[in-house]
Amino acid sequence: MTDACRIDIAAALDALPAFPRLRGQRVCLRGPCPGDADALFALFSDPAVMRYWSRSPMAARGEAEGRIAEIVEDFAARKALQWMIAARVDDAVIGTCSLFRFDPRHRRAEVGYALRSDHWGRGLAREAVALALEWGFRTLGLHRIEAGIDPRNAGSRLLLARLGFTSEELLRERYRVGGEAGDIQLFGLPAPGMR
Questions:
Q1: Taking every annotated instance into account, which residue ranges of this chain make up the domain N-acetyltransferase (predicted)?
Q2: For the chain, what is the domain count?
Q3: Rounded CA gap, 183 and 176, in Å?
Q4: pTM for this model (two decimals)
Q5: pLDDT of 4 over the 80 cut
Q6: Would residue 46 count as lying in a domain?
Q7: Is residue 115 classed exposed, middle or buried when 0-12, 13-18 and 19+ CB atoms within 10 A define those classes?
């Protein structure tokens, strides 16, 4: 049995005193603060960012404030960690990266991410997601991390492939946005050493 398998995932999550701060070369992952509402609204009101999302774009800044409150509540209940992706140079929020749907029994979780469209194509989302994956495998001892994306999202598909994820299953009409049904492509990544 590896050391990662000895980690009690629920206890490790409960022991977190605050959002872990993860630092990469160009981005860091940090918890949200009330001052992030404008940046979060800019992110989630952008139709390009929300094109393949499972909800419609935000229409009012108050939705971003509400989302920050939900992120804080989800962390307090240890249901999810939705980090702000912040640029290292100025701590400006340019996206989000999440670990959620923790399943301690089966040692798995899901990852999700969004990045401002004016930052696409620079490898910043990949850097942020890699930080979250490494933290989840090392700190929580996760055995597997999954991602579900709209199969039409070529950028997200490429990001996951570059991180070692494998496409596994197509879930037809998994969600509804604006009265239209959408599919989800499920990707999986076993922990290093398990592949």
A1: 27-192
A2: 1
A3: 9
A4: 0.93
A5: no
A6: yes
A7: buried
